[in-house]
Amino acid sequence: MRHSSVLDRSHLSKSQPSRRLISILQKHSGRNARGVVTTRHQGGRQKRYLREIDWKRDKREIVATVLGIEYDPNRTADVALLLYADGERRYILAPDGLKSGAKLMASEAAPLTIGNALPLKAIPVGSLIHALEILPGKGAQIVRGAGSAATMTGFEDKWALVKLPSGEVRRFRLDSYATLGQLGNTEWKNINFGKAGRKRLMGIRPTVRGTAQHPDSHPHGGGEGRSGEGMHPKTPWGKPARGKRTRSKTKHSRKLIGQRRK
To answer: Which of 23, 131, 139, 160 could form a disulfide with 55, with the two C-beta atoms 3.0–4.6 Å apart?
Structure first.
């Protein structure tokens, strides 16, 4: 373990997760109902409990108190346990700097403080946001990883322009909700796992280079000795792997992209 590193979790709550908000996470090892591998590099892992996250933030105009920040084994970001004024408890993703005892709210008139959820039309240009809805009411779908944040860059007719962590500027509906602030656990990207076994406990199986494989398994496979690719880099299914744009030109969301990331 001499090359490994771990995160400082001293700020996390020592209490057990809320029992009403957890369930055993079923393991499918990347296979579909027929047992065929549809997602590679997934395998055996330790037992986990799934935390039920409030992606919609649909308890509007009700003040909630942060009971604590907790570890979630299913995602890179930490989660915060909220206690609403009506007694209900819910989990949300914990933004950087959120402390126990803070007061949060989801509302059009909510204060512009980290952890509050507002529609994009009520968020000032230049603000950092996360947990962003693509369709109003559907719940947060993007900007959910540790340390990530999108930036409000402006407004255009009935759209809000948001610069995503990839660098892409995208149009969103003005009524889509987002949460203020950058997501916490920002040091996640600097972790050195140290050994293969630590990844296996997380359910991540090995990734084998294409040039090391049999020619039936990968376009780069085969050849005598340590042969190079011998062709333009491809995925195992023959799609260009680097450089060439493979996004469909007729995709329905094309009109929502204001500026490509490259």
So the answer is: 139
